[in-house]
Amino acid sequence: MAAQVRAHAPDLDLLNRWQRGFPLVERPFAALGDALDLPCPAVRDRLAALQRAGAVSRVGAVFAPGAGGASTLAAMAVPPERLDAVAAVVSSHPGVNHNYQREHQVNLWFVATGADRSQVERLLQHIERDTGLAVLRLPMLRPYRIDTAFNLRDEGSEHARPTRAAPSQLSPGDWPLAALAEQGLPLVERPYGAWAEQLGCGAGEVLQRLQQWLDGGLLARFGVVVRHHELGFSANAMTVFDVPDDAADRYGDALAHLSGVTLAYRRARAPGWHYNLYCMIHGRDRDAVARRVRETVAAAGLQHTPHAVLFSLRRFKQTGARRFAAHAPVTSESCDAHP
In this protein, which residues make up the domain named Siroheme decarboxylase NirL-like HTH (predicted)? Predict the structure, then answer.
């Protein structure tokens, strides 16, 4: 269980407000300081302290589904006596960025990422060889809501924001900047300038491209990425439904508009796993999450639909996705395709 971080009022103001809409200006921490009535060094110091404490993962990009790279939700039915050992094997792979135990016979759930689908498949095959256990492949077919920005003064995600897949993928010329954006801003006075120096271009071009990605739907948000466990949202339940395929969009859209839903999406079925619609709810304790799940199922009209509620029991690994890590800048030619 993660140690919880006590966030004081000034920290909550900083974290709540800037999980999206982070300033795309040359001195963003000074802009935050002006808004919060704090000196720029104090803002950077607070973010650095929250990162060290584990409450903040990074300040950076959350890419929209389909913007680039590949990923899939995967799951395994692991004998209880082998769970710790198998989870350690799964977590050891850099391409795995989330790994949880959940209450179900299918008890180990993780996200596998890679540069493309073939790389993800090779990772899953490697895990199967190492463990001798089958892996369920559950790729996303359509997102309805993916919103892990949390209202830290209340329960649930920040706003009801339905999600759309990215209209296109990033071009190869964008991958070096994308690698930096998913790693996170350095906590220096002019962080975009630091990225520009690595890329061999100007800070203005970096800012322009980030804004274009936001405007074009390639970025879901750009801002502070918090770690919900450490900030008190230690309970979560994944509710899975077996709905007719031709009704999935209707029900998924209904879930996407309900307060408290952080994730809602349609996924492929798999042999032995007949569920195709998923909904995630986070909260501060199990009872509150269970109550919200019941309310959500009823409000979406899914109470008579076959479903299962899988509470998270243990978190083995949680890191940010690194779909573009292999393309981190190494030369000054990275911006040549964007004059």
Answer: 13-55, 182-218
